[in-house]
């Protein structure tokens, strides 16, 4: 009996201190500021803001409230359309915003949207063409996948661009469908094979 009491006393401190962190979960919806409940994209920027793309505007959540960005037809520096499709982090505190009416570049320093995304791409040394996906990697590296499935690496630290080519073989065409850079710097590419009729 004494043995059981000693073991219980030894284990008691472990049970008291096993959960030191508490997590609070909150629901973000139209009742507390979100512009629409159908969410198409979410990203956290370098300032810690949570950006939520919806069918009815782009929302910036600061942990307490939402600031909604919508298309303003009398302002050429507003978001291009209210229907947000995707969001990607870019170098220099900018964000790629894909909408139903095309892409634009959000500049966090002046809180304006630039519809000339091709000019932005050219300023980085990248080709001016529609983008399929942008992935932020390690050490200020950004991977750009174009709609024609060309893959480019932009290093913000070195201000350098490298193009990677795909090599289709035989009657099958392998297209890049996803890319991710792991914490140890390895690049993971997911290809999809499509049969090409001759």
How does this structure look, described?
The chain has 2 helices and 14 strands. It has a single domain, classed as Methylamine Dehydrogenase, Chain H (7 Propeller). It is 12% helix and 42% strand. The strands form 4 sheets. It has a 4-stranded antiparallel sheet, with no helix packed on it. Strands 5-6-7-8 form a 4-stranded antiparallel sheet, with no helix packed on it. It is globular. The mean pLDDT is 85. The chain has 198 residues and is mainly β. It has helices at 2-16, 117-124, and strands spanning 39-44, 50-54, 57-61, 66-69, 84-90, 94-99, 102-107, 112-114, 131-136, 141-146, 151-155, 160-164, 172-181, 187-195.
CATH 4th-level superfamily: YVTN repeat-like/Quinoprotein amine dehydrogenase
Tell me the β content: 35-45%
Number of strand segments: 14
- What would the CATH topology be? Methylamine Dehydrogenase, Chain H
Question: Which structural category fits the helices and strands?
Answer: mainly beta
Number of domains: 1
Record the strand order, biggest sheet.
1-2-3-4
């Amino acid at each position: 009996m004494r043995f059981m009491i000693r073991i219980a006393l030894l284990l008691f401190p472990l049970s008291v201190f096993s959960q030191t962190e508490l997590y609070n979960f909150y629901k973000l919806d139209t009742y507390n500021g979100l512009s629409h409940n159908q969410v198409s994209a979410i990203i956290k920027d370098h300032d810690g803001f949570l950006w939520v793309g919806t069918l009815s505007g782009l929302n910036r959540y600061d942990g307490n409230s939402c600031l909604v960005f919508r298309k303003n037809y009398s302002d050429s520096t507003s978001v291009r359309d209210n229907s947000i499709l995707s969001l990607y982090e870019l170098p220099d505190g900018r964000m790629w915003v894909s909408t139903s009416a095309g892409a634009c570049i959000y500049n966090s320093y002046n809180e304006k949207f630039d519809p000339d995304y091709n000019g932005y791409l050219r300023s980085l040394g990248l080709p001016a063409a529609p983008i399929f996906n942008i992935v932020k990697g390690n050490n200020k590296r950004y991977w750009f996948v174009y709609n024609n499935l060309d893959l480019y690496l932009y290093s913000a630290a070195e201000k350098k661009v490298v193009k990677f080519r795909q090599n289709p073989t035989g009657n099958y065409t392998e297209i890049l469908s996803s890319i991710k850079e792991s914490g140890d710097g390895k690049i993971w590419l997911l290809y999809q094979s499509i049969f090409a009729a001759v």
